[in-house]
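Example complex used in Figure S2.
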Amino acid sequence: MFTEIKSTRIYEQVIDQIKEMVVTGKLRKGDKLPSERELTSKLGVSRSSIREAIRVLEVIGIVSCKQGDGNFIRTDFENILFEPLSIMFLLNKSSEREIFELRRVIEVETAGLAAKNITIKQLQEIRLILDDMEKTEDEDLKIKLDKKFHYKIAKASNNFLIVTVLNTISELIDSFIKDARAKILETRKEKNIIETHHEEIYDGLVNRDSKKCSEAMRKHMKMISECFIEE
Amino acid sequence: MFTEIKSTRIYEQVIDQIKEMVVTGKLRKGDKLPSERELTSKLGVSRSSIREAIRVLEVIGIVSCKQGDGNFIRTDFENILFEPLSIMFLLNKSSEREIFELRRVIEVETAGLAAKNITIKQLQEIRLILDDMEKTEDEDLKIKLDKKFHYKIAKASNNFLIVTVLNTISELIDSFIKDARAKILETRKEKNIIETHHEEIYDGLVNRDSKKCSEAMRKHMKMISECFIEE
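Predicted assembly (462 residues):
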């Protein structure tokens, strides 16, 4: 199961061995890692190297450390890209434009994929979200539902990777552009435009028309990005 | 500059303080971090917590550790997403389909952005790549040039974030689907199809026609994905 390690970059090799266990199926999602003490003696490295490796896996979002209970392979990875992306943004001083553009680039084609793959149940869920949005006057709730609408479409693409990347971008937009929502609300004067766009996207989904759905999403994103970028 | 830390999740707080220094501009790309000894005394935490934090930043790709010279904030972040994404793929047993689909989703719209933003110099570089591809019979070189073609288009989008994400996906495709190239070569019997597609994309770029360029890329990606997925 383990091989003894003799080298300088020890923590990296510990990570590699843990990865190896994942590749070979010896560790699966939700599994408990051997204790730090056990890993120390099995791998023949210092306890601090083991701890470094585990910390890295924790921050990356692979391992969760439950106090008093040990270290586990996570079962969800939704936030796995957040930490590295957020630090990268800070260091690169990435602009709002770049973050939003990536979202736009992904969402347009994802809408097309969703039109192909969406299930009846997912269509019904999206219909309900749109109905709820129309019923409420509460702006905070509307925004929550709006996010849910986009999230459900990503889910309908049936590609976990796309869902993860889009989620990360949304969170980044929320945390880096703190006034994004206010901006959009300020600029979005003709509220019907949003509703019309959403219905067009929904039509594309219902008719399983990838092209129409992508085009509707493109129009929607263009409108949003005009609120964002040009103000 | 620093605040003393008193808590349980110490290494996380060390990371937060380093991030804070980035946010406030006290640390920039290429800067040397204070020595481990200095950080230990300034932050009032153990040396091993400092080392854990630095290891995490290293693996994430934020810090590079030069033996005997200290720790530096990296100047490039091209590989920043590789480690977390690759482990995530392993754990999720993400399929080739998912990885390739994400690439496809991003490249189609990115081609449209590139048509808008490409510079004369970038157009010339891409022309040269296509000419070189036509001249050579060496399949390995052709593949190298093909990758360069796609990379240059991503660059022309003028969005660093898109370049980074696409690069990561390409590397993942290379390392997880080791026989991808062979597969494509095997299936791509009509070699002219590839060349025709590339020229269509190039036409879209030259004419700064986003729609045409996206459509040409969509067609190209569809062809590639058919080699991939259906074999």
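Chain A touches chain B through 53 residues (CB under 8 Å). Chain A has a mean pLDDT of 82.
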